[in-house]
Amino acid sequence: MQYLPAIDFEEAKHRLKTYFPFVFIRNPYTRLISAYESKLNPGASYYHRLYGSAIIKDFRPNASAESLQLGNDVTFPEFVRFVVNQFRKGKGLDEHWKPQYQICQPCLVSYAFIGKFENIQADFAYVLQSAFSVNFKLVNSLVDFRKPMNDTTVLQLFKDVPSSDLAALRDLYRFDFEMFDYSKSLPGRDWWQIT
User: Fold this and answer.
1) 169-185, pLDDT tens digit by residue?
2) In total, how many domains does the chain have?
3) Rounded to 5 degrees, what are φ and ψ at 10?
4) The model's pTM
5) Which member of 1, 18, 146, 164 has the greatest number of CB atoms within 10 A?
Protein backbone atom coordinates (compact mmCIF):
# COMPACT_ATOMS: atom_id res chain seq x y z
CA MET A 1 0.00 0.00 0.00
CA GLN A 2 1.31 3.42 -0.88
CA TYR A 3 0.51 6.51 1.15
CA LEU A 4 -0.34 9.65 -0.82
CA PRO A 5 2.76 11.53 0.44
CA ALA A 6 4.88 8.78 -1.18
CA ILE A 7 3.29 9.47 -4.58
CA ASP A 8 4.11 12.35 -6.90
CA PHE A 9 1.78 15.32 -6.20
CA GLU A 10 0.18 15.31 -9.67
CA GLU A 11 -0.38 11.55 -9.50
CA ALA A 12 -1.95 11.86 -6.04
CA LYS A 13 -4.25 14.62 -7.32
CA HIS A 14 -5.24 12.47 -10.31
CA ARG A 15 -5.99 9.44 -8.12
CA LEU A 16 -8.13 11.46 -5.72
CA LYS A 17 -10.18 12.84 -8.62
CA THR A 18 -10.62 9.62 -10.59
CA TYR A 19 -10.67 6.89 -7.95
CA PHE A 20 -13.24 6.21 -5.25
CA PRO A 21 -11.32 7.39 -2.18
CA PHE A 22 -12.46 5.60 0.95
CA VAL A 23 -11.06 4.74 4.33
CA PHE A 24 -12.07 2.46 7.19
CA ILE A 25 -11.61 3.62 10.74
CA ARG A 26 -12.14 1.99 14.11
CA ASN A 27 -13.12 2.89 17.65
CA PRO A 28 -9.87 4.12 19.25
CA TYR A 29 -10.28 1.87 22.29
CA THR A 30 -10.86 -1.35 20.34
CA ARG A 31 -8.14 -0.38 17.86
CA LEU A 32 -5.67 -0.04 20.74
CA ILE A 33 -6.73 -3.46 22.07
CA SER A 34 -6.31 -4.96 18.60
CA ALA A 35 -2.83 -3.44 18.29
CA TYR A 36 -1.88 -4.87 21.68
CA GLU A 37 -3.26 -8.32 20.87
CA SER A 38 -1.69 -8.55 17.42
CA LYS A 39 1.66 -6.89 18.11
CA LEU A 40 2.48 -7.90 21.68
CA ASN A 41 0.88 -11.34 21.91
CA PRO A 42 3.14 -14.30 22.64
CA GLY A 43 3.84 -15.03 18.95
CA ALA A 44 4.77 -11.50 17.84
CA SER A 45 8.52 -11.65 18.40
CA TYR A 46 9.40 -8.63 16.19
CA TYR A 47 7.37 -6.27 18.40
CA HIS A 48 8.65 -7.96 21.54
CA ARG A 49 12.17 -6.97 20.50
CA LEU A 50 11.09 -3.57 19.18
CA TYR A 51 8.94 -2.50 22.15
CA GLY A 52 8.22 -5.28 24.66
CA SER A 53 11.49 -5.36 26.57
CA ALA A 54 11.60 -1.55 26.84
CA ILE A 55 7.99 -1.41 28.04
CA ILE A 56 8.71 -3.95 30.74
CA LYS A 57 11.94 -2.19 31.74
CA ASP A 58 10.23 1.20 32.00
CA PHE A 59 6.89 0.22 33.51
CA ARG A 60 7.30 -2.96 35.55
CA PRO A 61 9.07 -2.67 38.88
CA ASN A 62 10.95 -5.84 39.82
CA ALA A 63 10.62 -7.43 36.37
CA SER A 64 12.21 -10.83 35.97
CA ALA A 65 15.36 -11.21 33.89
CA GLU A 66 13.42 -13.41 31.47
CA SER A 67 10.70 -10.78 30.96
CA LEU A 68 13.30 -8.08 30.42
CA GLN A 69 15.14 -10.20 27.88
CA LEU A 70 12.17 -11.60 25.94
CA GLY A 71 9.66 -8.77 26.28
CA ASN A 72 6.88 -11.23 25.56
CA ASP A 73 4.59 -10.77 28.54
CA VAL A 74 3.64 -7.09 28.41
CA THR A 75 0.31 -6.49 30.13
CA PHE A 76 -2.36 -4.29 28.59
CA PRO A 77 -2.04 -1.60 31.32
CA GLU A 78 1.75 -1.52 30.72
CA PHE A 79 1.14 -1.13 26.99
CA VAL A 80 -1.33 1.72 27.59
CA ARG A 81 1.15 3.41 29.93
CA PHE A 82 3.81 3.13 27.21
CA VAL A 83 1.55 4.65 24.53
CA VAL A 84 0.51 7.45 26.90
CA ASN A 85 4.15 8.11 27.85
CA GLN A 86 5.22 8.28 24.18
CA PHE A 87 2.39 10.73 23.52
CA ARG A 88 3.23 12.94 26.52
CA LYS A 89 6.88 13.08 25.50
CA GLY A 90 5.94 14.01 21.93
CA LYS A 91 7.56 10.91 20.48
CA GLY A 92 6.36 9.40 17.23
CA LEU A 93 3.79 6.65 17.63
CA ASP A 94 3.75 3.37 15.75
CA GLU A 95 1.15 3.41 12.97
CA HIS A 96 -0.84 0.70 14.74
CA TRP A 97 -1.65 3.00 17.67
CA LYS A 98 -1.14 6.43 16.11
CA PRO A 99 -4.38 8.47 15.95
CA GLN A 100 -6.23 7.58 12.76
CA TYR A 101 -6.82 11.18 11.71
CA GLN A 102 -3.02 11.55 11.42
CA ILE A 103 -2.84 8.57 9.09
CA CYS A 104 -5.86 9.10 6.84
CA GLN A 105 -5.85 12.91 7.06
CA PRO A 106 -9.58 13.54 6.51
CA CYS A 107 -9.05 17.30 6.54
CA LEU A 108 -6.78 17.04 3.47
CA VAL A 109 -8.45 14.22 1.56
CA SER A 110 -12.05 14.46 0.43
CA TYR A 111 -13.13 10.87 0.97
CA ALA A 112 -16.15 9.61 -0.92
CA PHE A 113 -16.81 7.29 1.99
CA ILE A 114 -15.56 6.76 5.55
CA GLY A 115 -16.47 3.30 6.76
CA LYS A 116 -16.37 1.97 10.28
CA PHE A 117 -14.91 -1.35 11.32
CA GLU A 118 -17.85 -1.83 13.67
CA ASN A 119 -20.15 -1.87 10.63
CA ILE A 120 -17.71 -3.50 8.22
CA GLN A 121 -20.05 -5.84 6.36
CA ALA A 122 -22.54 -3.16 5.35
CA ASP A 123 -19.88 -0.51 4.80
CA PHE A 124 -17.69 -2.85 2.74
CA ALA A 125 -20.70 -3.81 0.65
CA TYR A 126 -21.30 -0.13 -0.04
CA VAL A 127 -17.67 0.39 -1.12
CA LEU A 128 -17.71 -2.63 -3.42
CA GLN A 129 -20.95 -1.55 -5.01
CA SER A 130 -19.97 2.13 -5.31
CA ALA A 131 -16.39 1.74 -6.44
CA PHE A 132 -16.45 -1.49 -8.39
CA SER A 133 -20.11 -2.39 -9.03
CA VAL A 134 -19.42 -5.73 -7.33
CA ASN A 135 -22.22 -7.76 -5.83
CA PHE A 136 -21.41 -8.04 -2.16
CA LYS A 137 -23.30 -11.32 -1.70
CA LEU A 138 -20.63 -13.14 -3.70
CA VAL A 139 -17.77 -11.51 -1.77
CA ASN A 140 -19.53 -12.05 1.55
CA SER A 141 -19.51 -15.80 0.93
CA LEU A 142 -15.74 -15.71 0.38
CA VAL A 143 -14.62 -13.30 3.12
CA ASP A 144 -14.57 -14.04 6.83
CA PHE A 145 -15.50 -10.77 8.55
CA ARG A 146 -14.47 -10.47 12.18
CA LYS A 147 -17.16 -9.46 14.56
CA PRO A 148 -16.53 -6.20 16.42
CA MET A 149 -15.20 -6.51 19.95
CA ASN A 150 -17.92 -6.72 22.55
CA ASP A 151 -18.20 -4.40 25.56
CA THR A 152 -17.25 -7.16 28.01
CA THR A 153 -13.89 -7.70 26.29
CA VAL A 154 -13.18 -3.97 26.24
CA LEU A 155 -14.05 -3.56 29.91
CA GLN A 156 -12.03 -6.62 30.93
CA LEU A 157 -8.88 -5.27 29.29
CA PHE A 158 -9.32 -1.70 30.51
CA LYS A 159 -10.33 -2.58 34.10
CA ASP A 160 -6.77 -2.28 35.45
CA VAL A 161 -5.80 0.80 33.44
CA PRO A 162 -5.48 3.79 35.79
CA SER A 163 -7.94 6.64 35.31
CA SER A 164 -5.09 9.05 34.60
CA ASP A 165 -4.00 6.88 31.65
CA LEU A 166 -7.58 6.69 30.37
CA ALA A 167 -7.76 10.48 30.51
CA ALA A 168 -4.51 10.70 28.55
CA LEU A 169 -5.85 8.24 25.95
CA ARG A 170 -8.92 10.41 25.52
CA ASP A 171 -6.62 13.35 24.92
CA LEU A 172 -4.42 11.40 22.48
CA TYR A 173 -7.42 10.16 20.47
CA ARG A 174 -9.58 13.26 20.95
CA PHE A 175 -9.83 14.07 17.26
CA ASP A 176 -10.57 10.45 16.35
CA PHE A 177 -13.44 10.45 18.84
CA GLU A 178 -14.79 13.75 17.54
CA MET A 179 -14.19 13.44 13.78
CA PHE A 180 -15.47 9.90 13.52
CA ASP A 181 -18.29 10.17 16.06
CA TYR A 182 -17.11 7.71 18.71
CA SER A 183 -17.95 7.97 22.38
CA LYS A 184 -15.10 8.85 24.73
CA SER A 185 -16.72 6.65 27.36
CA LEU A 186 -15.80 3.06 27.92
CA PRO A 187 -18.84 0.85 28.37
CA GLY A 188 -19.88 1.27 32.00
CA ARG A 189 -17.34 4.07 32.67
CA ASP A 190 -18.25 7.65 31.96
CA TRP A 191 -15.37 9.75 30.65
CA TRP A 192 -16.29 12.83 32.71
CA GLN A 193 -16.05 10.81 35.92
CA ILE A 194 -12.46 9.77 35.27
CA THR A 195 -9.90 12.06 36.86
Assistant:
1) 999 999 999 999 999 99
2) 1
3) -65, -40
4) 0.84
5) 164
